[in-house]
Amino acid sequence: xxxxxxxGFLNEKSRWVRKETLNIHRITKExxxxxxxxxxxxxxxxxxxxxxxxxxxxxxxxKRDRFIISKSHGSIALYPILADLGYVDxxxxxxxxxxxxxxxxxxxxxxxxxxxxxxxxxxxxGVACGIAMALRRKKRNEKVFVLLxxxxxxxxxxxxxxxxAGEHKLDNLIVIIDNNKACMLDYCKNVLxxxxxxxxxxxxxxxxxxxxxxxxxxxHNALKQFKEQKNCKPKVLIANTVKGKGVTRLETxxxxxxxxxxxxxxxxVIVELR
Length: 274
Fold this sequence. Notes:
The chain is α/β, with parallel strands linked by helices. The protein has one domain: Thiamin diphosphate (ThDP)-binding fold, Pyr/PP domains (Rossmann fold). The protein is about 40% helix and about 10% strand. It has helices at about 5-30, 35, 40-50, 80-85, 125-135, 155-165, 190, 195-205, 215-230, 250, 265-274; strands at about 65-70, 145-150, 175-180, 205-210, 235-240. Helix 1 crosses helix 3, helix 1 (about 5-30) packs antiparallel against helix 11 (about 265-274) and helix 3 packs across helix 9 (about 215-230). The radius of gyration is 18 Å and the shape is globular. About 40% of the residues are buried.
């Protein structure tokens, strides 16, 4: 069980990351804000909840867990965390998407803390499967985490990787689905209904859990259990989230993926988050 102190800390960090993400959006006007806001608690629990092993002073540390952000368009919410933990200079947060900046709208492996480039959706899980298999063959204990978007599951390459992982019993592979139920141009149910996700994964011999993706306790408990579990199955955590979480206008907009907030709107939201 998580202590009240840790739960409070993780919730406070989530509020802080949400505010910093909004401030980055103010600078860049990057139209993927809603996609970043839905996965804030996932990032916070992974890093501040000490789920993944990492070393910001040695980004290629051999004993690190690998984290593949296949849903790369949600990465803006990770930038404040990487700066806070010492991966990048905090000054970089004021230059996102600017000429000469280290941090772009779609990240690449030149950014400390990122393992791969995933601008084209549907490739992260396949890469993660290869890494997981290589680690297992080397008899290593590190885990491979992957963040997928639910809209990304429309890509056929994702299901090829899902079948591969189940067939090869990659129990060092943990997938987190940011299940915010909205893709680029509408709600997923109106485009191609993905439900029931858990049953689909079970068919391919995956261990599944479903949690509230904004509840740090549920996220932490499920991920900790997955990391400790050895049952010859890859794991998938379906994190039910809200696209644009924290911004009422975005939470209720089927086109939130492409919306841009004004500075006045951002100021109002930040006040509400306090």
